[in-house]
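Internal tracking record. Fields below are filled automatically when a chain is submitted to the structure queue. Please do not edit lines marked as system-generated. If the sequence contains nonstandard residues, flag them in the REMARKS field before resubmitting.
Queue: standard
Priority: normal
Entity type: single polypeptide chain
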Amino acid sequence: MIPWRQALHAHLVETLANNRLFQKFAVTTEQKISELSGKGARRAQEFQSELSNPETMYETKEKMMTFMEEFKKELKEGAERTFGGKR
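SYSTEM-GENERATED OUTPUT FOLLOWS
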């Protein structure tokens, strides 16, 4: 790495490490991502077992589509709460 980049990187890391607001954001974000990942993994496992039954396959596909829409909505709302609707 170029020396000025190393210095800038070190300064940035140190500044963020000592910033309470950034630390709170990081913890909150990590918790929400873990929660959503767990929810997604549980539902994926449920869908997998339901898809193995040919009689309920169409119904399960509909459930999956609904879940995916709700999941996307939840992610969007979480991002808007976290970033205040700014991108």
